[in-house]
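Annex B. Sample input.
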Amino acid sequence: MDKDKKTAVVAQFQRQAKDTGSTEVQVALLTHRISQITEHLRGHEKDQISRRGLFTLVGQRRRLLGYLHKSDVEKYRSVVQQLGLRK
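Annex B, continued. Sample output.
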């Protein structure tokens, strides 16, 4: 992910001006990386190393979404809706 796309994603989900590590931002960045790796795997089906990395990222995003659901349900629903995730 290049710097411009990352800055755009962070700007969309940040809570305040210099927020780069909140749960919402982390979930959004992971979702972007997951979509990039998924596109890569469509053309390279036998790339098992990338597939394992994809599963790791999906698990990390799932744990962060679980934490967000426990701590603030409204933010959880907003993030899931903005990112278009199934839940």
